[in-house]
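Q: How would the structure tokens look for this protein?
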Amino acid sequence: MGAAELIHEGIYLTGGSSLSHFQDAASFIIDCGSELVMIDSGAGKGSKAIEKNIRDIPCDPSRISSLILTHCHVDHIGSAKYFHDAFGCRIVAHDLDAAAIETGNPLVTAASWYGTRLPETPVDVRLHGDHGALHAGSDELHWIHTPGHTPGSISLYLDRQGKRVLFGQDIHGPFSDDFNSDIGLWRESMERLIALEADILCEGHFGIFSGKSRVERYIRGYLDQYAGEY
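A: Here is the predicted structure in token form.
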């Protein structure tokens, strides 16, 4: 396992398959000065490793004010209750995925795919609608509803020092009736992400992509791959 990786000024990769536990999707910390924002939290078995990586930045996890969940799948949210209970951060998710998170539904959260169990996890703030902004310290973190992989999937972006950093988790899918996936909505969501013209893409499983053209190529590659799917 490794240490946290700096992505851009004050933005760190703190969890993932090579950093915390092999089941973990990527998790991130944004240092907003007076507080920290965490995006996703891994599958649940790497909680201590993620915490250590945060402390090694160095940042105090008690400064995490919000843990934003990009969607309801266990590899992204399994440690959410750990951070909520240990450090008092509020958990934020879109309303359309909130019920699955709070009940720990094994199919909708993909916990059954991972041979694990998601603890019932409180959602303190339910996001409604198509887009909005969350404020932390002096920063404004924008969220947009990007359904398709799951009904309540969201993506986030932050403009910092002349760069737009996009957190677009699970752009690659997969899609399943168990997840209530909708490829048609997913295509529309991906076009919305492309229109953001992000300089840096933080993806949930396949790394960090830098440069506007590289970000767009990555997203369009999946649009081409699923072109014949309905």
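The first strand starts at residue 5 and ends at 8.

Helices lie at 47-55, 74-77, 80-87, 95-103, 183-195, 212-225.

Upvote if useful.
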